[in-house]
Specification:
With 91 residues, this protein is mostly helical. It is built from 2 helices and no strands. The longest helix is centred in the C-terminal third of the chain and has 14 residues.
Length: 91
């Protein structure tokens, strides 16, 4: 979802997110996703290092502690000049 508009993207699609436009995403399906994200100007790589948690194994977890992840995003976003503006997308 970008700027209040829902987009469903598929393998090979591209979505451009202008600076300052709120966005969020949910990966749907039963196989892992690979995402290439470019941030220009750079500098957000530290955000993902801070928020990310390495997978314990190579499979989709049965459940995920979304509240814990959202708390990490809120804490780290401030350091990077970002604002978490909403709850995760519904299932």
């Amino acid at each position: 979802m970008t700027g209040g508009e829902l987009h469903r993207i598929e393998v090979g699609d591209l979505i451009w997110l202008p600076q300052g436009v709120p966005h969020r995403f949910r990966i749907r399906g039963e196989s892992p996703a690979e995402i290439l994200a470019l941030g220009i100007p750079g500098g957000l790589d530290g955000l993902y290092t801070t928020v990310g948690v390495p997978a314990s194994e190579r499979r989709i977890p049965d459940s995920y502690p979304a509240d814990e992840e959202l708390a990490r995003w809120r804490a780290a976003a401030v350091e990077h000049g970002l604002e978490v503006v909403g709850p995760p997308l519904p299932e």
